[in-house]
């Protein structure tokens, strides 16, 4: 056991000696400014940079250039739209660029630092076509950083591992991977085809409406989710795109959805297909065909009924000012003033009236239907938003259930018999307000 312990101790001592040798081998030159805190390598502002060329061993050069519009664009190895956030972050990492420290003030030989034939070079072009070349050399033995130098500057610096990572970008890191160049607030119309159904959504102020095949209300949460999916739809730039094999896989796939989105700049189109378990996309604003996450394909695999609003009433969380219901020969009418409810001039119980209003608010269709509405047996009118919103609904009997129709809309909604029974019970359960206690406030 003692012998094995001596061997282990000797191994540790040898490792520490190696690190000490390496450190001494690359220690700052006599008189070097090793104590300088965060010395500047590049003293630039973000707006000073007009182009960045990245050269890495064994890889194609990448050139990121700023167009006349002020937008970044990948110019090499081929012209591609750049992700403006990623490009801006790269430019920001260089403007300015600070070192951790200076290890040589006047390096006679760059080879010991891996800077004579560096693993990475960045050529930074400034306004006026002035260029500076940044060299990134070997990793440091400890700390995760790397050696760096500026061409023409005799100093050798160290930069952090984070700085090196932020500079070592390729086309896949810098490319704009959005399949549609839209934002949720600029979309005014969506033409959507899926499950052999053509659906048109239009934005009416801040609310979405289904315009075709029926002019009916849309489920706001479902359509908002669709808009988010379209806004965030991206492809994986590391996957091949535009090659014949991917194109053939797309062409032979089953159609999932096609979308045409209207924004102020015009119309953009997206088509999704499925081949076996994988989804592929083709966009009108991006060359090629790309594999996309299955979440996107599944989110677009929807039909008309998925997007229709199944709530019968729209007053939502608003407290109505008036609720009326005719059920055959029975009429219910409740009016609110402040927090008090009354019926035909008689004050009624607050709790039981709100229970009835909630039954109306939560009245929901089991499913939208296209037929089955006959002679109405119940009609309901709700006034809300200080009288600015009046919703009227007619309900007819249909077999064992019921069918509802909103006033002025072609859509029909199937409602269960149990929901109507609960509604009737709640209406009949509204009772007069309790008399105030003797001697209490009148």
Offer a few descriptive terms.
442 residues, 28 strands, 9-stranded antiparallel beta sheet, single chain, disordered N terminus
How are the elements arranged and paired?
Elements: H1 2-25, E1 40-42, E2 49-56, E3 62-66, E4 72-76, E5 80-81, H2 84-93, E6 97-98, E7 101-104, E8 120-126, E9 131-139, E10 146-150, E11 156-159, H3 161-167, H4 171-174, E12 189-194, E13 197-204, E14 207-212, E15 216-217, H5 220-231, H6 244-251, E16 254-263, E17 266-275, E18 278-283, E19 289-292, H7 294-300, H8 304-307, E20 322-327, E21 330-337, E22 340-343, E23 346-348, H9 350-361, E24 367-369, E25 376-384, E26 389-398, E27 401-406, E28 412-415, H10 417-428
Helix pairs in contact: 9-10
In order across it, which strands form the biggest sheet? 5-4-3-2-8-9-10-11-7
Q: Rounded to an integer, what's the Rg over CA atoms?
A: 35 Å
Low-confidence stretches: 1-35
CATH architecture of the largest domain: Sandwich
Strand content: 35-45%
Q: Give the mean pLDDT.
A: 89
Distance between the termini: 96 Å
Task: Give the overall shape, derived from the CA principal axes.
Answer: elongated
Explain what this protein looks like in three dimensions.
- The chain has 442 residues and is of the alpha+beta class.
- The protein has three domains: 31-174, Immunoglobulin-like (Sandwich); 184-307, no CATH class; 322-428, no CATH class.
- Helices cover 23% and strands 36% of the residues.
- It contains ten helices and 28 strands.
- It has helices spanning 2-25, 84-93, 161-167, 171-174, 220-231, 244-251, 294-300, 304-307, 350-361, 417-428; strands spanning 40-42, 49-56, 62-66, 72-76, 80-81, 97-98, 101-104, 120-126, 131-139, 146-150, 156-159, 189-194, 197-204, 207-212, 216-217, 254-263, 266-275, 278-283, 289-292, 322-327, 330-337, 340-343, 346-348, 367-369, 376-384, 389-398, 401-406, 412-415.
- The strands form four sheets. It has a nine-stranded antiparallel sheet. Strands 23-22-21-20-25-26-27-28-24 form a nine-stranded antiparallel sheet. Strands 15-14-13-12-16-17-18-19 form an eight-stranded antiparallel sheet, with helices on both faces.
- α9 (350-361) runs antiparallel to α10 (417-428).
- The longest helix is centred in the first third of the chain and has 24 residues, at 2-25.
